[in-house]
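Please predict the structure of the following assembly.
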Amino acid sequence: MAVEVARPPTRTGSPAVPRRRRPVWPRVWHFLSFGAPGVLVYVCFVLAPIAVSVGYSLTNYNPFGPKTRFVGLSNYKDLFTDSEFLTSLKVTTILTLIVVIVPNVLGLGVALLLDRRGWLYNALRSVFFTPVVLSSVVVSIIWTRLLADDGLVDQALRGVGISHPPGWLSDPSYALYSVGAILSWQMLGFCVVVYLAGLQGIPQELHEAAEIDGAGPVERFRKITWPLLAPALTINTIVMLITGFKAFDHIQVITNGGPGTGTTATIAFNVLQTGFNANRQGYASAMAIVMLIIVAVASAVALRILQKREVSL
Amino acid sequence: MKRIIALGTAAVLAAAAMTGCSVKDDSGGGGGKGKKQITFLVFETPNQTPQVWDAAIKRVTDKYPDISVKKLVSPTQDRTAYAKQLLTSGQLPDVMIAVSPAGFAESGNLYAWQPNELTDFTYPNNGAVNGKIYQLPANSQTVPVVYFNKSLFAKAGIATPPKTYGEMMSDAEKLKAKGITPFVVGGGKDIHDALGPTFAGILGTDLYAKNPNWMHDRRAGKVKFADPDYVKAAGKLSDLASKGYIDKRMLSQDYAATQAAFLSGKGAMYAMGNWFAAAADDPKTKPSFDIGQFFWPSDDGKLVVPTFTGGGLLVNAHSKNLEAAKKFALAYQLDKTNLDASTKNDGLFPAIKGYTPPANSGPVFKTGYDMFKQAESQSAVVPAFGFEAGDDGMLPGVADQWSASMGDLVTGRKSASDVGKFLDSEWQKAS
């Protein structure tokens, strides 16, 4: 017995209904009207300057010098035998380590202390955040005065019997760490706020359940708080990493790269000195590009490592 | 309709973003109907306040109402570096003051003043670059004068100022023995201005006194920083610190704090440019003690006076209103009231023919001016190391390293000999 399978009606069998195609141009205009301004700004003020810098870095460009000529990768080769650049790389690395570690550790501690309700805690949060919104120049001037020989810090130390306090900004052995401390002080509030946001996102039930199971405060921090703060740690680490690597204004205002030659000169500071004081802008561009690559690689690596330990509820 | 509104909004936003991030170029005639607008780069110091600049500009624009001036203020004392940044971004001001012409001049960015425009200047050929004058040689500055606190000198039993370097060291020892810091110095972001005059004193009496063409010879490769003369002078700066005559901790002070430290009696001697007279005579900052002054003494007591003549206005050769810029610059520089104001506010010695300072000038200024005129008449003037301009100065970039190297000498981080070698290597890089 043959079974006739009913075939579905075909389009050809049905009366022709013309499909209404959506015109392309309105969609293109729609996309352009929203996307173009942002893309334009990004291209003009981020991508184009980077491209121009890469171009300059392959030349001996000096705005006051002889005709600019293409030098290939020789600026890059010279960088890695240039003691000034290598010193500034070391200075930048030390400064970055300070700025990544100190505000993160202290920020977490302060955030744990401030993770409570009440007007006092709200007020303290504002106090800790205030330095973040201050201009770095203002912060630098304030701290230059505080750490001066007759500044408040030394006066306080003399008051407690330390008759010869260190030369915080005048002694080459201390100056870099002093600048690192100032930067850390300014960025502490940022880390506090991010950690506080992370802490407030952890459900209270988890802590209560762990407490019922007999977990003490340290155990609860280790097993609940710390893993769930991983996204906050990622944000803080990346932001501090970038802040440390591009440190310039504090150096310019507080030490001008000294005391002495290059003791606190970061790569960013060296770029400006080389480009605008020594007029070697091609070479300075090569420094800037190397710095860009270092920051990008360091951030990408840190991001990858830190994201691996992030957990979601 | 929606599409048109969206597109319009996007266009407006993009245009706003573009205009907001660019510098409005209205030098072609902005600043009022029929007026020629020019930009004027200035710098602020404790002496050169915003009010001082505004009043000086107004005096010229009152004289030439067809010119309007947009004042630009350098964010730091290093106005030359700022001018370079502005040049790189195509915004070199029409007129600048006290910017080093090196580099700008050779690259054709500055207007070369013609001899007939410089007839009023006492030293019309000072600060030349390749034989041409780009910066009006407007004033002379003795760098340094050693200002001293008469009360502290008396306390240490010093009756008269030293005549030789040896006497000065012996006075420094007496001061130190009384617990007084002999020399007030500074550093920080202003190390060139706060410590440079002290070193310029040593280099003037040790190096330039022997060879006033030292810097030209360095450019020609005939002398080096590592040569014994420079190393000996650098060693003297180092010694001042190692003997405790300079407090290394003062290196953290910027220029303003250094000046304030001397004015508040925190040290006995202050080697500084004669512009310090402005603060010393100003009733608002005048100290409670009497100030004496002497020129940095040489080893044998021969008078040597490091002096810089220049420091005036420069004009952008590509200014859209070049004639207005030139007219403004010359009028600003030759205006008697402005010159009088520059003596009062910045302690400058105008190098303008026939000029005499106002009769009511302060006592510190008057004494310094008379000392300078006397030195000038005795042909005791030599260049001020580190403060020269044009062909007389260091190569671009080396001057910054020279400033930083003073920090190495004072902190003892590098020996005088190592500093000399380092500066030669920097010179090599810059040439």
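Chain A has a mean pLDDT of 90. Chain A touches chain B through 49 residues (CB under 8 Å).
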